[in-house]
Amino acid sequence: MTTLVAKDLTTEYPRSPKETIAGYVIAARALDKCRATLAGTAGEYHFNCPLDQMFFEFSGVDSNAFKDFVETGAEDSAVAEWIKENASEKTREEVVAWNFKMRDSRMSEMPSQVQVYMEDEYWPNYLPGNYPHFFFDIYDMEEGRM
């Protein structure tokens, strides 16, 4: 059943990290990658990568439990409800503030290992000549959303 809603990430992109599900940025992208991983169509994408882990850490959602629930074939709305039920208690203000912090994060604010990876490997191979300042813009630029 998972394959019915899974994107084929070898031919299309996951959602932007800016998009939300259950009110959280990154979550919709993590869901797309999780479904594709389960369906065997993830291509070069990796579920529970450092970006996904930012969502899991902030929300308090366990990535393995998330994957187990997604494996049931749940649609977006059911996954959103599951996230709300399984996330650690946060006010709407805390979630919105985190969303804006993530959307506005600059590369200079990322951990040093992320900066080195982006500078030495990612940008030269995927975005030659383009050096976006905002972290999420890297994904949107590479995937043709900007």
Question: Quick summary of this structure?
Answer:
The protein has 146 residues and is mainly α. The chain contains eight helices and two strands; from the N terminus they run αββααααααα. The protein has a two-stranded antiparallel sheet.
Output the helix-strand order. HEEHHHHHHH
Q: How can the largest sheet be summarized?
A: 2 strands, antiparallel
Terminus-to-terminus distance: 33 Å
Outline, from the CA principal axes? globular
User: Count of helical segments?
Assistant: 8
Low-confidence stretches: none
**Residue share in helix:** 55-70%
Q: Let me know the number of strands.
A: 2
Strand-pairing-aware structural class: mainly alpha
How much is the radius of gyration in Å? 15 Å
Chain-averaged pLDDT = 92
Instruction: Give, in spatial order, the strands making up the sheet with the most strands.
Output: 1-2
